[in-house]
Design a protein that fits this description.
The structure holds two protein chains of two kinds.
Chain A lengths: L2 E5 L2 E3 L5 E8 L8 E6 L6 E6 L8 E3 L7 E6 L4 E6 L8 E7 L3 E2 L3 E5 L2
Parallel strand pairs in A: 2-11
Antiparallel strand pairs in A: 1-3, 3-8, 4-5, 4-9, 5-6, 7-8, 9-10, 9-11
Chain B lengths: L3 E4 L2 E4 L5 E7 L12 E6 L6 E5 L3 E2 L7 E6 L2 E6 L8 E7 L6 E2 L3 E5 L1
Parallel strand pairs in B: 2-11
Antiparallel strand pairs in B: 1-3, 3-8, 4-5, 4-9, 5-6, 7-8, 9-10, 9-11
Classes of the chains: A mainly beta, B mainly beta.
């Protein structure tokens, strides 16, 4: 059974940093592109970014609102994908989900950016 | 970015009756490989999104066959043949053909 478990959310001040983790199980992690999607409270879904497999160079892509501030990385030895968020803004407040091919989703972790 | 437009945004339905949600994209979702990467998701209250349908009409494992997807090009539809109480939630379409993937605004299904 595919499982994705996010952690690392919390309250941070504007301009601060947080690192989210997503631990995967139930599939061959190294062979899969992983993504992060976010959902502001009471609003819709927004793709954040993705990371390809290491065999494909581990290339990352991001949406414009987070480009240059967020970084996705992966550790295939630990079956984990990370989302490093720097320069946080109040509009980054959201539940952050990791997802495998949009087929499987974690339970999400809440990030609140507020002074 | 590709804009996904859903209608209606609110959908009150009587139990046992059918329901239909429309999704239109601002450009064709046919990819260079010939496939169309249009998916539908259900998000029940307090839960993570769950994919129901991928590549327009393929149901995910465990999805009841009362859910069906159809369409082509820029116009797509999710149909529920007979709504049950457990279907309450928000439904999203999503295109994965063009980067970045984008979602519709969501359609809130409620029981009348």
């Amino acid at each position: 059974e595919v499982q994705l478990v996010e952690s690392g959310g919390g309250l941070e001040k504007p301009g601060g940093s947080l690192r989210l983790s997503c631990t995967a199980s139930g599939f061959t992690f190294r062979n899969v592109w992983m993504s992060w999607v976010r959902q502001p409270p009471g609003k819709g879904l927004e793709w954040v970014g993705r990371i390809k497999t290491e065999s494909e160079g581990g290339t990352t892509d991001y949406v414009a609102p987070v480009q240059g501030r967020f970084t996705i990385s992966r550790d295939d030895s630990k079956n984990r994908v990370y989302l490093q968020m720097n320069g946080l803004k109040t509009e980054d407040t959201a539940v952050y989900y990791c997802t495998k091919d949009s087929e499987a989703w974690g339970q999400g972790t809440l990030v609140t950016v507020s002074s | 970015d590709v804009v996904m437009t859903q209608s209606p945004l609110s959908l009150p339905v009587t139990l046992g009756q059918p329901a239909s949600i429309s999704c239109r994209s601002s450009q064709s979702l046919v990819y260079s490989d010939g496939d169309t990467y249009l998916s539908w998701f259900q998000q029940r209250p307090g839960q993570s999104p769950r994919r129901l349908v991928y590549k327009v009409s393929n149901r995910d494992s465990g999805v009841p066959d009362r859910f069906s997807g159809s369409g082509s090009g820029t116009d797509f539809t999710l149909k529920i043949s007979r709504v049950e109480a457990e279907d309450v939630g928000v439904y999203y379409c999503m295109q994965g053909t063009h980067w970045p993937p984008t979602f519709g605004q969501g359609t809130r299904l409620e029981i009348k």
